[in-house]
Inverse folding.
């Protein structure tokens, strides 16, 4: 009897979560607010600024979606999630979309029942060490103590990398990036490993960033992107095409500054279709005509967002690299708006 | 209308289930049980239908898949090629290790604190009061984090131990050095202590998943035999004393019996210590006692000891003052009064709440993840849960295992409680 009561309690939790899974778009509209899962704090990707407003590359996706769906980019409730809690938060319906530098993998897509809507940052796993350690390659890390965020793909890549190279290491499992920074700075680990972009962002806020180097080896592919629960295809489409609109906007030269003007009509029918001047693409998504215009106006196109949050003008100083547009030798590419 | 002539019906009527006090309580109980079962069935049905909606099933087969991650403290052999189940066992062993050591240390400290808090020495008694009030009124998680911060911030890094050629030439000392004849290195990763090695090892046998070193078994057996012989010698001496009034001198026999067999065995096995040496990033060789383990153990111990101290004090206070007065009248000194008269009686009051404290300590050990100690919650409920996405299964398993551990602790302690409780015939 006791066991069944206890099972019952569990199922109440599952039940409460179950209700939230249907028609996310209606839920968000009824609520008037988008629940967006973000990092607990990773400068450049998602971190509150001095005034407590969330800023960053992943946050911009939340803003664009809120602008497209609700017409106001500020109607977002940011839910900070750790690498351990993020999937439970999404699966349980606590958040509508997870935009938290999360790697797209087969098992997360197929087994965890999520849908990745795209890749907003092509990344790879790297290592950061103190410069005075004298290490210049990750292959010299035999015997090192390595700080690693638990519940991530990097945790498994790390095990594979050391195994393949026949080296040993001591893992120190940490829960958040902040905890990792603290332990790494205190010298509790020789190396800190996560996505190379995360390392750059972490290093940028160290007291003396120049005392640390990021080793040249990139040991894995980490395509990071926003994801939603599987089974609500309309909602997945909304996030996917909001993101595509940002990329296409950069390709066609639509910026937050000129989007208002261009929406009045241009010579390029693709821009007209995207911004709602021609046809009614928005209705196919269950939105109004000007959804993409508002999404772009929220924080600018992909290039503007990148430059403002991660780019070479920011303390994080990441180059576009793989994340340049396909027309400039990168991988960022939007399917046609037609 | 000859009502008086009617006798009560002897048969059973349905209404009697409610109106007859003989049956009413049973009826109510049955109805409540049925309602509870219906509610439980409804909830379980909901659980499964919701899981089905989500396209998930309840399956534990993931336990046999490759884990793929590494664990920093493995008391049983483990590599990332082993299964999730093996990782679960590693975590379970780590949980049990910190719980058992924590319970032992907390009991020892708690008994001292409880006894000293009743001391007639004003300063000692007040110091103990301060200890109890500070430790039991601050959450245990904070104590664990404080201990961890102290261990990692105060201690030197392994590279501080490095002696370079330049330093030798200049005659400067490294920033840190090993202690206890260069055998123990205290670093911010953990403490490296020497490891016992045997040149002529007896090998090891495997019982289930647990490899057992025959060397350790042999040493423990010899020590047990030595203690047995030692007690026989003592008993013989007492018998002689009872008969003749003279106690024979046995100290040399006692020393011989206690130490010679052990030394002989160690020499036969080729026992020597492997000292940790600095190589590359860390010390190599020796045994690494992780700071996270030390912090967790210390935090849990000090916190729980404060509660145990109060339990011990309550137990002692429950013994009537007449007992200690009687003991004093018989000429027993205070210390002997405590150990022979008060504590044995106080145990009857102490043990039941003590069981709860042991259970608390064991369950609190699941805070380990805060300091990166890979206990059961860290392996099964942390990494395995995240990498496989089997939240429900992992949580059910986790709850079941903690339940079993707790029931085993209370079962064992209840047996002990029965052996010390007042025997009334």
């Amino acid at each position: 009897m006791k066991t069944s009561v206890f099972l019952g309690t569990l199922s109440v939790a599952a039940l409460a979560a179950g209700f939230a899974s249907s028609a996310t778009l209606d839920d968000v509209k009824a609520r008037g607010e988008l629940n967006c899962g973000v990092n607990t704090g990773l400068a450049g990707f998602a971190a509150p600024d001095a005034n407590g407003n969330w800023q960053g590359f992943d946050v911009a996706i939340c803003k664009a979606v809120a602008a497209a769906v609700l017409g106001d980019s500020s109607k977002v409730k940011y839910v900070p999630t750790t690498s351990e809690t993020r999937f439970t938060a999404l699966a349980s319906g606590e958040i509508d979309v997870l935009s938290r530098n999360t790697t797209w993998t087969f098992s997360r897509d197929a087994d965890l029942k999520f849908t990745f809507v795209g890749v907003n940052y092509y990344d790879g796993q790297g290592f950061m060490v103190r410069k005075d350690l004298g290490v210049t390659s990750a292959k010299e890390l035999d015997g090192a103590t390595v700080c690693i965020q638990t519940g991530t793909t990097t945790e498994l890549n790390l095990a594979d990398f050391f195994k393949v190279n026949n080296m040993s290491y001591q893992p120190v499992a940490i829960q958040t990036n902040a905890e990792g920074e603290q332990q790494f700075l205190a010298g509790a680990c020789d190396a800190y490993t996560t996505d190379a972009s995360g390392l750059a962002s972490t290093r940028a806020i160290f007291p003396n960033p120049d005392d640390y180097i990021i080793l040249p080896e990139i040991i894995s592919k980490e395509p990071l992107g926003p994801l939603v629960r599987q089974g609500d295809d309309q909602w997945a489409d909304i996030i996917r095409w909001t993101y595509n609109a940002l990329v296409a906007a950069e390709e066609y030269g639509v910026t937050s500054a000129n989007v208002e003007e261009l929406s009045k009509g241009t010579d390029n029918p693709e821009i007209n279709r995207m911004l709602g001047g021609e046809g009614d693409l928005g209705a196919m998504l269950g939105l109004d005509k000007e959804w993409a215009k508002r999404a772009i106006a929220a924080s600018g196109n992909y290039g503007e967002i990148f430059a403002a949050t991660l780019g070479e003008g920011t303390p994080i100083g990441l180059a576009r690299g793989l994340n340049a547009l396909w027309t400039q030798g990168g991988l960022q590419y939007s399917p046609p708006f037609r | 209308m000859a009502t008086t002539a009617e006798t009560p019906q002897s048969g059973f009527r349905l209404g009697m289930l409610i109106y007859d006090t003989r049956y009413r309580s049973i009826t109510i109980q049955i109805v409540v049980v049925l309602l509870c079962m219906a509610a439980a069935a409804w909830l379980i049905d909901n659980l499964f239908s919701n899981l089905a909606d989500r396209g998930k099933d309840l399956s534990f087969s993931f336990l046999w898949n490759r884990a793929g991650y590494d664990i920093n403290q493995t008391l049983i052999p483990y590599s990332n090629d082993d299964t999730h189940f093996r990782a679960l066992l590693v975590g379970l062993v780590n949980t049990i290790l910190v719980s058992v050591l924590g319970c032992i240390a907390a009991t020892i400290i708690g008994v001292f604190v409880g006894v000293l808090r009743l001391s007639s020495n004003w300063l000692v008694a007040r110091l103990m009061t301060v200890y109890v009030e500070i430790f039991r009124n601050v959450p245990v998680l904070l104590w664990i984090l404080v201990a961890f911060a102290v261990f990692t911030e105060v201690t030197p890094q392994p590279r501080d131990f490095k002696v370079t050629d330049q330093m030798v030439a200049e005659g400067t000392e490294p920033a840190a050095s090993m202690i206890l004849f260069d055998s123990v290195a205290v670093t911010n990763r953990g403490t490296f202590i020497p490891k016992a090695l045997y040149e002529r090892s007896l090998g090891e046998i495997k019982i289930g998943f647990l490899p057992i070193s025959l060397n350790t078994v042999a040493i423990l057996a010899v020590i047990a035999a030595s203690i047995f012989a030692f007690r026989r010698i003592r008993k013989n001496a007492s018998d002689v004393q009872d008969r003749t009034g003279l106690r024979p001198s046995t100290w040399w026999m006692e020393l011989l019996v206690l130490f010679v067999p052990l030394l002989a065995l160690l020499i036969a096995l080729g026992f020597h210590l492997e000292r940790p040496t600095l190589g590359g990033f860390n010390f190599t060789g020796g045994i690494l006692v992780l700071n996270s383990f030390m912090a967790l153990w210390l935090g849990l111990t000090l916190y729980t000891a404060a509660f145990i101290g109060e339990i011990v004090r309550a137990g002692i206070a429950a013994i009537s003052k007449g007992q200690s007065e009687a003991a004093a009248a018989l000429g027993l000194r205070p210390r002997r009064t405590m150990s022979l008269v008060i504590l044995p009686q106080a145990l009857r009051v102490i043990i039941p709440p003590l069981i709860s404290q042991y259970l608390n300590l064991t369950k609190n050990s699941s805070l380990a993840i805060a300091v990166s100690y890979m206990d059961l919650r860290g392996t099964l409920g942390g990494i395995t849960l995240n990498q496989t996405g089997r939240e429900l299964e992992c949580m059910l398993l986790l709850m079941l295992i903690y339940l079993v551990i707790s029931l085993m602790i209370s079962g064992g302690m209840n047996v002990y409680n029965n052996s010390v409780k007042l025997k009334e015939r």
